[in-house]
Design brief:
The chain is α/β, with parallel strands linked by helices and 449 residues long. It has 2 domains: 32-369, 3-Layer(aba) Sandwich (Alkaline Phosphatase, subunit A), CATH 3.40.720.10; 374-437, 2-Layer Sandwich (Arylsulfatase, C-terminal domain), CATH 3.30.1120.10. It has helices spanning 3-28, 57-65, 79-88, 99-102, 110-116, 158-170, 193-196, 214-222, 227-254, 304-307, 335-343, 358-361, 422-437, and strands spanning 32-38, 67-69, 72-73, 120-125, 142-144, 176-181, 261-267, 311-314, 323-325, 330-331, 372-374, 384-387, 390-393, 403-406. The strands form 3 sheets. Strands 5-4-6-1-7-8-2-9 form an 8-stranded mixed β-sheet, with helices on both faces. Strand 12 and strand 13 (390-393) form a beta hairpin. Helix 6 (158-170) runs parallel beside helix 9 (227-254). Its EC number is 3.1.6.1. GO terms for molecular function: arylsulfatase activity. Residues 31-345 form the Sulfatase N-terminal domain. It comes from Thalassoglobus neptunius.
Length: 449
């Protein structure tokens, strides 16, 4: 054989072998994970979740390309407890020391597990998960705790999203995991005209909203707010979230990462109240018109409006596109075991309150195997739980009457049927009390709240 032909044949075979190895590595490589997390965004604050005026085209398109859940829950009704469940797979009431002040102690986090799996980990924006936000904490390679953006006209989350975009560019070869934890729509909502003016055509018709929203309109008016202007302010803040989500999605496509990247969008709990009971009305309180849809309550409440949040997941070829999952009950306490399953991590922490719901993400229907519990980190605070269709609230320090709701018939928790179903109250109550017995007798915090 001619030596030139021989060498050419060898070169061709080597090139095919290289392509084959690269393709195999791509098939075996776990997916990138991009976690876009809003702050105090209500269940009903997005167009795809039924807001009558919101303009969220990027997030709505994400929902069309993925699955949108309507029974997805957080683990706490304020900022740190919600994030504690995400990071550890444990209900936050299990921690005797408040994690915002002390961190997670010896508990293993999802970011540490993914780091061991070979992921590059980034975190940008709000922190609120311990006193140390230096690189390396919880296995996170790059941490930038970024507050409001320097250029106000672009919206308050613009800078932190820009930092996350840079991280994705730098780690495009993957796999990477990135927390993009924004500040909108946390108090105060003070939206620049450049964003709020997009909604100058909005005039509030109170009939466009559920009965559960009417008290917020009343409170806004009572403290001197203008419903139309306050609504435009709030919608502008939501709009800048959508603009930033659009930037990330565009980048993922430009880098050719869409097919092997899981994108999740959600919120840390329900919308903030117009005025806090212990602080009253403050400047910009009138703009806090977040919408929980038909659900009762919001931030600080363990009713559905505080615990149920929007949740959208896209993973092309894996998660069904255009699907609305209204039957499965999932929670952020499931985040750690679910991502570990997807990423091929087999050794998990011995104690987990969550369960692997990856099959639900991928389209299966099944009953969850573990109850959902809520309780603030205070001795004697009000506990609540959900099992199946039932939601039970026990009174604080056993003073008062229990509340039981059938969420399949009464998702707004407007009709307490505890007296009609004493056997359900007794059965669930025993389960809830058994869980409370596992919790710390006392809690420690370093800051007044």
């Amino acid at each position: 054989m001619d030596i030139k032909i021989y060498l050419l044949a060898i070169a061709v075979l080597l090139s095919f072998a290289t392509i084959s190895v690269e393709a195999q590595e791509t098939d075996q490589r776990p997916p990138n994970i991009v976690f876009l997390f809003a702050d105090d965004l209500g269940f009903g604050d997005l167009g795809c979740y039924g807001h009558p005026y919101a303009r969220t085209p990027a997030i709505d398109q994400l929902a069309k390309e993925g699955t949108r859940f309507t029974q997805f829950y957080v683990t706490g009704v304020t900022c740190n407890p919600s994030r504690t469940g995400i990071m550890t797979g444990l209900f936050p009431a299990r921690f005797p020391k408040y994690a915002a002040d002390f961190g997670f102690g010896n508990r293993t986090t999802i970011t540490e597990l993914l780091k061991e799996r070979g992921y590059r980990i980034g975190h940008f924006g709000k922190w609120h998960i311990g006193p140390d936000d230096s690189d390396g904490t919880y296995g996170i390679d790059e941490i930038k705790t970024i507050g409001k953006s320097r250029h106000k006209s672009a919206g308050r989350d613009d800078d932190l999203y820009s930092a996350a975009i840079d991280f994705i560019k730098d780690n495009r070869d993957g796999p990477f995991y990135v927390n993009v934890w924004g500040h909108a729509t946390h108090f105060p909502v003070n939206t620049p005209a450049e964003l709020a003016d997009h909604f100058n055509d909005v005039t509030v018709d109170r009939n466009d909203f559920a009965p559960t929203m009417q008290h917020k309109f009343d409170e806004c008016l009572k403290i001197g707010g203008d419903l139309d202007e306050s609504m435009r302010q709030y919608l502008g803040d939501v709009y800048q979230i959508d603009l930033n989500v659009g930037r990330v999605l565009k980048l993922i496509d430009e880098l050719g990462l869409r097919e092997n990247t899981i994108v999740v969008f959600s919120s840390d709990h329900g919308p903030a109240p117009v005025a806090l009971e212990n602080k009253g009305a403050r400047e910009f309180s009138n703009n806090m018109l977040g919408y929980a849809g038909e659900f009762r309550g919001g931030k600080h409440d363990q009713y559905e409006g505080g615990t149920r949040v929007p949740f959208i997941v896209r993973w092309p070829g894996q998660v069904k596109a255009g699907r609305v999952d209204s039957s499965n009950v999932c929670s952020f306490v499931d985040w750690l075991p679910t991502l570990c399953s997807i990423a091929g991590i087999e050794e998990l922490p011995q104690q987990l309150d969550g369960e692997n719901v990856s099959n639900i993400w991928l389209g299966s229907d099944r009953e969850r195997t573990k109850p959902l519990f809520w309780k603030t980190s205070a001795t004697g605070s009000t506990p609540a739980m959900r099992v199946g269709k039932w939601k039970l609230h026990l009174p604080r320090k056993q003073r008062g009457e229990p509340e039981l709701y059938d969420l399949s018939l009464d998702p707004s928790e407007s009709n307490n049927i505890a007296e009609d179903h004493p056997e359900v109250v007794d059965r669930l109550g025993k389960t809830l009390q058994a869980w409370i017995a596992e919790l710390p007798a006392n809690y420690e915090k370093t800051k007044k709240r």
